[in-house]
From TrEMBL:
<dbReference type="InterPro" id="IPR035090">
    <property type="entry name" value="Pyridoxal_P_attach_site"/>
</dbReference>
<keyword id="KW-0119">Carbohydrate metabolism</keyword>
<dbReference type="InterPro" id="IPR000811">
    <property type="entry name" value="Glyco_trans_35"/>
</dbReference>
<dbReference type="InterPro" id="IPR011834">
    <property type="entry name" value="Agluc_phsphrylas"/>
</dbReference>
<dbReference type="Pfam" id="PF11897">
    <property type="entry name" value="DUF3417"/>
</dbReference>
<comment type="function">
    <text>Phosphorylase is an important allosteric enzyme in carbohydrate metabolism. Enzymes from different sources differ in their regulatory mechanisms and in their natural substrates. However, all known phosphorylases share catalytic and structural properties.</text>
</comment>
<keyword id="KW-0808">Transferase</keyword>
<keyword id="KW-0328">Glycosyltransferase</keyword>
<comment type="similarity">
    <text>Belongs to the glycogen phosphorylase family.</text>
</comment>
<keyword id="KW-0021">Allosteric enzyme</keyword>
<feature type="domain" description="DUF3417">
    <location>
        <begin position="5"/>
        <end position="112"/>
    </location>
</feature>
<dbReference type="InterPro" id="IPR024517">
    <property type="entry name" value="Glycogen_phosphorylase_DUF3417"/>
</dbReference>
<dbReference type="InterPro" id="IPR052182">
    <property type="entry name" value="Glycogen/Maltodextrin_Phosph"/>
</dbReference>
<dbReference type="Pfam" id="PF00343">
    <property type="entry name" value="Phosphorylase"/>
</dbReference>
<keyword id="KW-0663">Pyridoxal phosphate</keyword>
<protein>
    <recommendedName>
        <fullName>glycogen phosphorylase</fullName>
        <ecNumber>2.4.1.1</ecNumber>
    </recommendedName>
</protein>
Length: 867
């Protein structure tokens, strides 16, 4: 039953159904004023609030002139936000008309629980930042009727899972309908003549529509209805069906949405992790139906595709038995016009170290996208090494996977008190732009904020966190079966004047939830230090099927239950967005201690930093990239080859304890004559001024637009039907001819004798004889590659430059290439030459994974020149 609002209050419905309220303080404050107690009871959910407000209260508000003025102002502000020109509209022409962004989960707000952890929160922040910037994005995901699980604890501290049933009609969603009012739907064929149908729900995230597919429809049988039952649940076939619905059904949902609303068709398709990789197959099918052959369609699809990997370890990638995939893409399954072998070839691990019996979703994502990226500089490096087998013959640094470092949506994660402090210095409008659009390198106005104001703010946020922790802890203990009489101790848990450390995230083993427990006596000393105590707030969920993760949670909970320390360390169950928005601002230090380099990015510390919290972290993910001593502390890494896992944990835990005891706590408690910790406050200033602008989702989305979306759109436009046929035919011809391509002879000519040494600035003339077989010089580029020679006798820090063909081929068919090589650096210096395929429509020379280099016999002249 939906509430009927009096006519003057009708704009409240529009405000509640656009999720911009989740990051717009004025709109939230407006809803809170409707019914403050109801707002708290509904967890800050406007739709639930409006459904619970008594009719007499609504009638009174409809007559309240002051409230109606505020309502009109909020409605007008939303309209301006939705229709005004923003950053994207001010850019030069050529940007994509629209971008489709696919992800298995989206963390927009706690009122729409369709996320499990960092991947979903990142996707939600991506949509919000795109909205703030005016990027014409369309989000695509699945609507999980049970969402992700809710976590509670048994009396013994064992994680328990609960799956609440979500009714889409009670969520901020509207069903996409055809012109005749019937629900729009997509259908996928399944083996055995079955089908799975899905309705399309839309969440409006500011300017960005988010389409969520829902298989819980009456047209489906029981098994098919459960395809979208829960996030990351079920067995292998269940996951495959979810990912087919997300990718294939998602493209069909986008087409339906654009057809029904007039939204521009996407020119770029962005796959956020491999789960949605099948979207490329559906786009190929669309072109094949229009008459294209598979190879030409593949080239056209690749040109406009972007693939983002978030996984630094092969075990984190979805892999399916090839036979299972083949069955679902056979003649009686989905995409019947496409040979199942062509599908399998896209995801097959047919490279050294791979398993050809498995279908790898990330491998398919990379093969179906001309542009790919990791989510931090270090993760880009790790990804290039992890997937180097797809580009044989190339060093890892040349694997075409770049990086765009993640960011976080500041308006969502910055506490209102922090925003108001900034707004007092530069005005609310400029402060809002600084947090959402970004663009500046530093926020130097932070330097003008008095130290006393910063410290008062930090204590206020800490005090709010203490109150929040006590309330949540009391509720958690009641769920564990405790009575009120045994919970009096909770009133003394945490102290608003004690150094507060936060640690909250998912609980896979590599994040090392229990590293802090490695030496319990040492930790206890830190917690109970008579002059410089610390207190720790911990939260996190283990995957329901991960018993080892649950044991880590239980180990931490049992330690926190100890009466000796329970007032200084707490574990809060059911970590989610609502808890996180209180936790990040209230902590003084954010702790992160993963096994390096297994944290692809890790954005929790970014959210903390935006609230003036300092980071204490292993140099992994984003912290490896942006760490400075002014922003916090780096935990040393003991990752030598001779150090086993247990020894590594011992060493890094000891380093953590030392940092806390000798550097972190003393700085926090070192007070000047004015009673303020001056050096600590300066670190807070530096964090806000120098780190704040870097960690913004606005910066991240601008990077995607400029470095990936714009080039992808340009490539997609260039690769029309004729060009895609040409490129596909050219690739086939080059692959067939490549075995005959060879570097036959290399020689270097210098004015003086080399003798193993040469002078800086000298120039060599390179002469290279090559065999091209059936290929022409226009099909290749002959390059010289020069750089420093490392201890393993490999070229490092290389530069490449093309050599030029001279004259016609010789009688033996060989061709001669020449060019100068300038010796531009001292120390061990070397060079080699190579041949790469070359075509105007390739994104890079490594795209085909083909290269010809000198053999040992022909490459004698390519070696160390200077020492």
């Amino acid at each position: 039953m939906r509430p009927v609002l009096p006519e003057p209050l009708r704009p409240l419905s529009d405000l509640a159904r656009n999720l911009r309220w989740s990051w717009h303080p004025e709109t939230r404050e407006l809803f809170q004023s409707v019914d403050p107690e109801g707002w708290r009871a509904t967890g800050g959910d406007p739709l639930r609030l409006l459904g619970s407000v008594p009719a007499e209260r609504l009638a009174a508000l409809a007559e309240d002139r002051r409230f109606l003025r505020r309502l009109a102002a909020a409605a007008d502000d939303l309209q301006d936000y939705l229709t005004g020109r923003r950053w994207y509209q001010e850019q030069p022409p050529g940007l994509p008309a629209a971008v489709a962004y696919f992800s298995p989960e989206f963390g927009i707000t706690a009122a729409l629980p369709q996320y499990s952890g960092g991947l979903g929160i990142l996707a939600g922040d991506h949509l919000k930042a795109a909205s703030d910037l005016g990027v014409p994005l369309v989000g695509v995901g699945l609507l999980y009727r049970h969402g992700y699980f809710r976590q509670s604890l048994s009396r013994e501290g064992w994680q328990q899972e609960h799956y609440p049933l979500l009714d889409p009609n009670e969520l901020p969603l509207t069903m996409l309908r055809e012109a005749d009012g019937t629900p729009a739907r997509v259908t996928l064929a399944l083996p055995g003549g079955r089908s799975v149908h899905a309705h399309i729900w839309k969440a409006q995230v500011g300017r960005v529509p988010l389409l969520l597919l829902d298989s819980d429809t009456e047209e489906n049988g029981p098994g098919e209805r459960d395809v979208t039952d829960r996030l990351y649940g079920g067995g292998s076939e269940h996951r495959l069906l979810q990912e087919m619905l997300l990718g294939i059904g998602g493209v069909r949902a986008v087409r339906a949405y654009c057809r029904l609303t007039g939204h521009a068709e996407p020119e770029v398709f962005h796959t956020n992790e491999g789960h949605a990789g099948f979207l490329g197959l559906e786009r190929i099918r669309e072109l094949v139906v229009q008459g294209a052959d598979f190879d030409a369609a593949l080239e056209r699809v690749r040109s406009g595709a972007v693939f983002t990997t978030h996984t630094p370890v092969p075990a984190g990638i979805d892999r399916f038995e090839a036979d299972l995939v083949a069955r679902h893409f056979g003649e009686d399954g989905e995409l019947p016009g496409i040979d199942a072998e062509r599908v399998l070839a896209l995801g097959r691990e047919d490279y050294p170290g791979g398993d050809a019996a498995l279908f790898n979703m990330a491998v398919m994502g990379l093969r179906l996208a001309q542009r790919a990226n990791g989510v931090s500089v270090l993760h880009g490096q790790v990804s290039r090494e992890m997937f180097a087998g797809l580009w044989p013959g190339f060093d890892a640094e040349e694997v075409p996977i770049t990086s765009v470092t993640n960011g976080v949506h500041a308006p969502t994660w910055v506490a209102p008190e922090v925003f108001r402090l900034g707004a007092r210095r530069i005005g609310a409008g400029r402060a809002e732009d600084a947090l959402s659009v970004g663009g500046s390198q530093r926020w130097d106005t932070v330097a003008d904020i008095p130290a006393a104001d910063i410290w008062e703010l930090r204590r206020t946020l800490r005090e709010q966190l203490v109150e929040e922790v006590r309330a949540r802890l009391r509720a958690a203990w009641r769920e564990r079966g405790a009575g009120s009489a045994e919970l009096g101790w909770i009133d003394g848990v945490l102290d608003p004047d004690v150094l507060t450390i936060g640690f909250a995230r998912r609980v896979p083993s590599y994040k090392r939830l229990t590293l802090m427990l490695r030496d319990r006596e040492r930790l206890t000393e830190l917690l109970l230090h008579p002059e410089r105590p610390v207190q720790i707030v911990v939260a996190g969920k283990a995957h329901p099927a991960d018993d080892s993760g649950k044991r880590l949670v239980q180990e931490l909970v049992r330690f926190a239950d100890d009466p000796r320390v329970r007032q200084r360390i707490v574990f809060l169950p059911d970590y989610g967005m609502a808890m996180a928005q209180k936790l990040y601002p209230g902590c003084d230090v954010w702790l992160n201690n993963p096994l390096r380099p297994l944290e692809a990015c890790g954005t929790s510390g970014m959210k903390a930093a935006l609230n003036g919290c300092l980071n204490l972290s292993v140099l992994d993910g984003w912290w490896d990239e942006w760490y400075e001593p002014d922003f916090g502390w780096a935990i040393p890494t003991a990752d030598g080859a001779a150090v086993d896992d247990a020894r590594r944990d011992d060493l890094e835990a000891a380093a953590l304890y030392d940092l806390l005891a000798q550097r972190v706590a003393p700085r926090f408690y070192d007070r000047g004559a004015d009673g303020l910790p001056g050096r600590w406050i300066e670190m807070v200033r530096h964090t806000l001024a120098g780190l704040g602008p870097k960690v913004l989702a606005g910066r991240m989305v601008r990077d995607y637009v400029e470095r990936l979306y714009a080039p992808a759109a340009e490539a997609h436009r260039a690769l029309d039907e004729a060009a895609s046929r040409e490129l596909a035919a050219w690739k086939a011809r080059v692959r067939a001819a490549w075995p005959a391509v060879a570097v036959d002879h290399v020689e270097a000519v210098s004015e003086g004798p080399l003798g193993g040494t040469a002078e800086l600035g000298a120039t060599l003339s390179l002469r290279v004889s090559v065999t091209l077989g059936e290929l022409d010089p226009a099909d290749v580029e002959v390059q010289a590659v020069a750089g420093r020679v490392d201890e393993a006798d490999r070229l490092a820090h290389t530069v490449t430059f093309p050599l030029k063909a001279t004259g016609a081929p010789g009688l033996d068919g060989r061709r001669l290439y020449e060019g100068p090589l300038t010796l531009d650096r001292t120390g061990p210096f070397g060079y080699t030459v190579r041949i790469l395929p070359s075509h105007r429509l390739l994104a890079c020379g490594a795209e085909l994974g083909l290269v010809a280099v000198p053999s040992h016999a022909t490459g004698e002249a390519a070696g160390v020149l200077m020492r």
